[in-house]
Every structure is written in C-alpha cells, then in structure tokens.
Specification:
Layout lengths: L1 H39 L5 H7 L3 H11 L3 E3 L5 E3 L1 H4 L8 H13 L6 H7 L1 H15 L15 H27 L4 H19 L1 H11 L5 H6 L5 H4 L3 H12 L21 H35 L8
Helix pairs in contact: 1-8, 1-9, 1-10, 2-3, 3-5, 3-13, 5-7, 6-13, 8-9
Length: 311
C-alpha cells in the first residue's frame, strides 16, 4: 500500500513538472515559426540593410565614387569632382545625396568620410530620419516566451524548484526505506523510482526545449547575408581608399577644423599632432591659392599688357 501511494504521488508531481515544460515547447515552437515566416517575407532596401549593419556611410561613399561625384586620395581625403560640384547633379537615393551635400559644405578643403559620419550633425540627422522611416516598415517580430524579464514568474520558478527538490528527498527516503512484498509492490516501487529519475532530468529537459526552439537572429542573418551592391562593385584600390577614409575621423576635417597653437616645448606627441594639422591646413590653402593664381593669369592674358606710363 505504501509503494502504491508513493508511485501515485511521484507520478502526479512528475506530470505537474513536465506539463509546463511541454507547454513551453509548444509556445516557443509556434513563436519560432511565426518569426521565421515574418522575416522570410521582409524585403530590405539595400541602404536600409547597410544601415542596420552600420555600413550606410560606407555604401553611400562607394556609390559616389562609382558615379564620379567623389575622388578619394591614397591618404583618405575626399574631394569633389567636376560632376560633384555641379549643383544640378545629385544622386537619386537620399543617403548618398546627404553625403554629397556634406562634402560640398567642406569644399574645397579636404575632408574624410569618417569625420563626416562621426561629426557632421546635419548628415547624422539625415541618417536617423531615414532609419526611422525604414524601420517603421519592418514587421513586429514577436518575442520568445520565457521567464526572462518577468520577475514574478522567475520567483515562482525558484520556489517551485525548491519544493520539488524537497519532495524528491522525502520520496527518495521513503522509497529506499520501504520493504516491498510481492511482484505488485515491486512494480509500484519501479514506477516511483522512474518518476524520481524523471524529476532529476527536468532541468535538462527545459534546456533542450530552449535550444531546439531557439530561432536565433533571422533578421540579423538577412541583414548580414550580402554586402551593398555599390561597395561590392568597387575594385580593390577603390575599396581600400574608401575604407581608409571611413576609418579616419581626425586627420581630414574640412572647413570645421580648428587648429590650437600651444607654446609648449615639452609637448612631444602633441607638438607632432599640431604639426600634422598645420601641414594639411597649409596644403588646403596652397590648393586654393593655386586656383586664384590661375584665375589671375587667365584674366591678365585676356586684357593684354599694361601700357607704360608717360614720363
């Protein structure tokens, strides 16, 4: 009689423990299937995909280089071409158009694409506006059910585990100290022992359910599936200078750069950095002065030599 009652009680507790695990499996499998179906129906615009990868500026610069709006030298400085200076010519997509406008604001001073991406607030606001517009078109991806983020459910789970452990110890002690008589009592004892073994595996069963129903990151996998077409179309040299300009956020800062002169003889590295900034500023001024000299020569040739004054 004791073995029979013990077998019934252990079986009931085991069923009460595994019922939520089965329900969790069913709910997570449904949500996983729904997430995969929603992501499979998503058609990401290439620039939106690049923006989710934090590569939108890289893609926009690649398109401007391919279309002849920009020239990037071997040091990562970006310059406008004749086509890029033409205000009547602008890319159709808003992101490369915003990047081109940012470079135009600094022309003719050299500027790196990385500095624009990190410090040009007008350009960054255009990026944020585009992302808000495109993110609004994404489907609402459901969250996987679980105790994460639910404090009440997590506390209830802890209390339940403690009670099950206490029951397991008491039932195990009764099972070991019992003296079954005859085949029927031995059968009930075996049922109780199997139930206790199943309770020991309940935590592992929960982990298996979570692992087999884990959907991963299907939207992230879709975003990372391929590079932007403009970046993929660059040759090796173009790709190198675009990445160099993207990674440079300090050297080429266009018309917004400010050089601070410090009379500190013991500056060391600070002096070297100031000299580097001074050099590229002088190069920029020399570039502008050469244009002015060419304009003066052309105007002098058009008006002819100046007649000598009468004595």
């Amino acid at each position: 009689m004791r073995q029979f009652a013990l077998a019934i009680l252990v079986s009931a507790v085991t069923a009460a423990v595994y019922a939520p695990i089965g329900l969790l499996w069913w709910r997570r499998a449904r949500v996983r299937g729904r997430r995969l179906r929603l992501v499979a129906a998503v058609e990401l615009e290439p620039y939106h995909s690049a923006l989710l990868r934090q590569e939108a500026t890289e893609a926009a610069a690649s398109e401007l280089v391919l279309d002849g709006y920009l020239r990037i030298d071997e040091e990562g400085a970006a310059f406008l071409t004749g086509q890029g200076r033409d205000p009547a010519r602008t890319p159709a997509h808003p992101l490369p158009a915003a990047l081109l406008e940012a470079v135009r604001r600094h022309d003719p001073e050299p500027v790196s694409i990385g500095w624009i991406d990190g410090c040009d607030e007008d350009y960054r606001e255009r990026l944020r506006a585009y992302r808000r517009e495109r993110d609004a078109l994404l489907p609402d991806i459901p969250r996987m059910p679980g105790a994460e983020g639910n404090l009440l459910l997590a506390c209830g789970s802890c209390v339940g585990i403690a009670l099950v452990m206490l029951f397991w110890l008491l039932a195990g002690a009764l099972l070991v100290t019992g003296r079954p008589q005859g085949p029927r009592e031995w059968a009930w004892t075996a049922v109780a022992a199997l139930g206790l073994a199943a309770l020991l595996l309940a935590e592992k069963a929960t982990r298996v359910v979570r692992e087999r129903t884990e959907p991963g990151d299907p939207l992230g996998d879709l975003v990372r599936s391929e590079a932007h077409p403009a970046f993929a179309a660059l040759d090796e040299e173009q790709r190198t200078v675009v990445l160099l300009s993207i990674g440079d956020r300090h050297t080429w800062r266009g018309t917004d750069a400010v050089v601070h002169e410090e009379a500190d003889d013991e500056g060391g590295e600070d002096d070297d950095e100031w000299l580097d900034e001074k050099v590229w500023w002088e190069d920029a001024y020399e570039y502008r002065a050469s244009d002015e000299d060419m304009d003066e020569d052309e105007s002098g040739a058009a008006t002819g030599p100046t007649p000598p004054s009468s004595g």
